[in-house]
Amino acid sequence: MVDSIIEKALSGPRALGAGDLAVLVALDDPAEIGKVREAAYGLKCRYSGKVVSMRGIIELGNVCAKDCYYCGIRKSNAKLERYTLSADDIARLAEIDAGQGYASLVLQSGEVEGEAHTRFIEDCLRRIAPLGLGVTLSLGEQEEDVYRRWREAGAERYLLRIETSNPALYARIHPESHSWERRVECLRALRRCGYQVGTGVMSALPGQTPDDLARDIVFFGEIDADMIGMGPYIPHCDTPLGRTAPELPASERLRLGLNMISATRLYLHDVNIASTTALQALAPDGREQGILAGANVMMPNITDTKYRRSYQLYDGKPCLDENALMCRGCLERRLALLGESVGYGRRGDSPHFLARTSAKAPSA
Ligand code: SAH
Ligand code: SF4
After folding, report:
1. Is residue 138 in contact with ligand 1, taking CB distance under 6 Å?
2. What is the CATH architecture of 2-354?
3. Does the pTM of the predicted model rise above 0.85?
């Protein structure tokens, strides 16, 4: 069964049906998982080589207007000290990122809307533009006009996870005021504004089935995503969802997260897929396993360590005390063990984006 699914997957992008994807997501036989990961890793190497693209991530603030039931920095978590970095701090960290040779940068925060915040981000983007980094924003839902202004100020990529493509499941993990439809509309708006569009989901959510996850992958195709960022859900003790123990043990959640990466690679072929920190929270080498399962991007945290305890989206988020320099050496060594190198000096644009916009070859 798995052999024929792999053969079909390798015949071209989007060759698999939702039923095939559900089989891949639910796999638990080590030999079958091994075959699927090998095929997915082969595709990763075909599109990106034995190279991992790095984007330093700056967690620029933990102020958030939203109250997602799973997230440690949700508005109602009164235990947190809230912070927002200054434009000077962000410019300094962006220089550190460029100095590491990462060539790309992610700016992420809780969701804040309003003119003052829009201007603040514009200002940051204009200040870091001379560094020539590929800049990704992950700042939540915004009006289309705001996305356009940030695009004009120099951001080229945007990450907005749909969290789950199942509206009923979405409604169970968010307050009523949060709209799944608005999130989809935001993804469409980002596309209209010319971004490389990234989305993704959490796996191992309470009540989520392999069919839900298979449909998530089909959703990525329907929205024609260029980049995917996914990871297992990890409880945070100060959240409504985190008060109940996870349904699956850590090893099972890791397996599911890795199966999602492989199935997404086998379905979409040429998108950028991030090997996320949530994988590392479940196993020390979780991110390396993510690369071997078909991911091609990593996002080392370059935020000053003094803020990291205030940006705990989930319990046990790793690398609380390692600064950017320590991360760099550590990642380089870990990847070398896999025969993979760090794509220093390469922006690592999504091959799918370049193909769909018929752009020139990826910038070196
Ligand atoms: N506020 C922005 C970006 C920051 S949150 C937004 O929500 O889009 C970034 C991602 O962290 C979210 O999309 C979510 O998928 C993930 N996340 C939040 N809480 C999590 C948890 N408990 N376990 C795993 N991932 C989580
Ligand atoms: Fe805010 Fe994002 Fe966390 Fe939701 S997931 S509470 S929007 S930071």
Report:
1. yes
2. Alpha-Beta Barrel (3.20)
3. yes
